[in-house]
Specification:
299 residues; alpha/beta; Arc Repressor Mutant, subunit A; D-Maltodextrin-Binding Protein, domain 2; 3 domains; two-stranded antiparallel ribbon; 12 strands; 25% strand
Length: 299
């Protein structure tokens, strides 16, 4: 493999037209320049320079190597610029995963704001795996995932950035007897048929844990696993449901929504990031955009 430093010395000689000019440009002694060129000629097995009056000129082989040295120098400079842009958060790529309601309420406005400020960073957006939403982050297939996790949970290898607390609301058929009250105790729903709105996971755990604290276990008569469908079943009079505020952006006209207390179920929305990736400029800027979108969603 050719020595890059020697190639750079050869190019300086060819560009300057003499060993002394190259020595001045590089800050070397003429003797050191001559030694570098001689070593390169020995390595290549061919003459690279020939005398031309008081200076030198390249042979065909010397001209070829000098041209390649120029390409190498340009590529090294471009690599340095690209690295500086990456380290400053001006370029690169980020893979973002999220669940549906967070995508609409948090990720979409955060991504729009981020792209306005950082157009050189490419974003790959997609849904989390509902079975294990942290897997892609842990395995390096995603840089950040917006997930629901209980406060204070231990997750080795991850840092969880709190975004917002998303409280659940009671969703009742319009005209239901409990709809006359502005705030309901969760236990008021104990004897009602329930429409399930959550799939198995931390969101359903939040609902079940709150019901247990209120002294009952809900009797599910329908499983829907998404919020619009659950509202449709409730509107049809098949039961009541609990739906988080982020899931109530579009409310069915046939339902009544009421606040809950004693306790109020709340799911904690976080951004999950690998500990080893923490502090990367573009990632830190995206997290800032997510936090700002979360503050706007709380207003």
């Amino acid at each position: 493999m050719l020595d890059v430093r020697r190639l750079q010395v050869l190019r300086a000689v060819v560009t300057g037209g003499s060993v002394s000019a190259a020595a001045t440009a590089l800050g070397y002694t003429p003797s050191a320049v001559s030694q570098q060129v001689a070593a390169l000629e020995k390595q290549t097995g061919t003459a690279l320079l020939e005398r031309a009056g008081r200076g030198v000129r390249p042979t065909a082989a010397g001209r070829l190597l000098a041209e390649h040295a120029a390409v190498i120098e340009r590529q090294v400079a471009e690599a340095g610029t690209a690295l500086a842009d990456l380290l400053a958060g001006r370029s690169g790529s980020l893979t973002v995963r999220y669940f549906a309601t967070a995508g609409a309420a948090l990720v979409a406005p955060a991504v729009a704001a981020f792209r306005r400020e950082h157009p050189g960073v490419r974003l790959d957006l997609g849904m989390t795996d509902p079975e294990d939403p942290l897997e892609d982050v842990l395995r390096g297939r995603a840089d950040v995932a917006v997930v629901v996790r209980p406060h204070g949970g231990e997750h080795p290898g991850l840092r969880l950035v709190p975004l917002l607390d998303d409280p659940y609301r009671a969703v009742l058929p319009r005209g239901h007897r409990l709809g006359a009250r502005r705030v309901l105790d969760l236990a008021d729903l104990a004897g009602e048929p329930w429409v399930g709105s959550e799939r198995t996971g931390p969101c359903l755990d939040t609902v079940l844990d709150a019901c247990a604290e209120a002294g009952f276990r809900p009797g599910f008569v329908v499983d829907s696993e998404d919020y619009p469908t659950a509202q449709g079943f409730v509107a049809a009079g098949l039961g009541v449901a609990l739906v988080p505020l982020l899931g109530l952006a579009r409310r069915h006209p046939g339902v009544t929504v009421r606040r809950l207390r004693a306790p109020e179920p709340v799911r904690a929305v976080h951004a999950a990031v690998r500990t080893t990736a923490w502090g990367q400029p573009a990632l830190a800027q995206l997290l800032a955009s997510l936090r700002e979108a979360a503050r706007a969603a709380r207003v």
